[in-house]
Write a structure and sequence with these properties.
- The chain is mainly α.
- The chain contains 14 helices and two strands.
- A two-stranded antiparallel sheet has the order 1-2.
- Helix 3 packs antiparallel against helix 4 and helix 4 packs antiparallel against helix 9.
- It is globular, with a radius of gyration of 19 Å.
- Bound molecules: geranylgeranyl diphosphate.
- Geranylgeranyl diphosphate binds next to helix 4, helix 8 and helix 9.
Amino acid sequence: MTAGLSPADFVKRLDATADDTETLLAALLSDEVLPDEIARPKRVMEAMRYSSLGGGKRLRPFLVVESAAVFGVDRKAALLAGAALECIHCYSLIHDDLPAMDDSDLRRGRPTLHKVYDDATAILAGDGLLTLAFDIVTRDEIHRDPAVRLNLTRALARAAGIGGMVGGQMLDLAGEGRFGDTGPVDVARVQQMKTGALLRFGCISGAILGEASADDHRALDIFGRALGEAFQIADDLLDVEGDAATLGKETGQDAALGKTTFVTQLGVEGARQRVRDLLAQGDKALDRFGGRADVLRAAARFVAERKN
Ligand code: GRG
């Protein structure tokens, strides 16, 4: 763990942001109809709350809040941007669990949404969370300057969309051979898009909200990419070595699907070494921020060493 922040202090900070995010999401997902909305149907609202509340590490909101803290951004604004990012993350998990995608029964230690409701409700709950995210990032409370809100909105769209998470999911499905032989899988590229793009957004969002210099923005970009890859390698390692009860989802799924992962490519020891290299890369990028980036450094270690 990084000097200046004990593991216990890090967990306290992570938990505090998770609690604040939970409260905020509960308010954003209330049944109260907003101006220009017509009605919020009970079933879709309940489904959205089922998948967004009461679970998850809230790592992405934490990255938004802590990258924003580097630039002294108002915590309330950062939490709101973090809640938007978490909405997109939760939507991606709902859709990923559907029979047409990964067909998973368990998520965050509970039955998946389509098992509790049905496929149609799960698709609509995911769609609802995705669109709500874009409602949130355009709100005045995010930043007084509409140009900053626009930058944030565009960055979020690019992270979540065809050139980011959605595109990565498409490449991942193709890599499973679902659409015939589409050639060798570029694991690093798939994961950079599918999982890395949202994590990277979490790290650069602070620079956007803080109207950081181009060099500071670039440093967080490098850190965010390293953290994203480390997260995915840790995920691949957990699929091989993790414990289903701690993880809250089935393990061994990659092997069952015959998937190419960082672990199949690098081996377990090679994957661990790559994580160490990525942590060093991330630390180096953060050097310019000194102690202001201690929490981000600790976050990268948490991501690499996580057990769930
Ligand atoms: C359906 C468009 C679409 C995309 C799905 C991200 C994704 C793309 C699918 C998730 C599949 C998966 C389990 C990927 C591994 C990495 C990952 C996103 C793990 C879950 O993230 P955590 O560990 O989860 O941050 P919590 O529950 O803590 O929020």
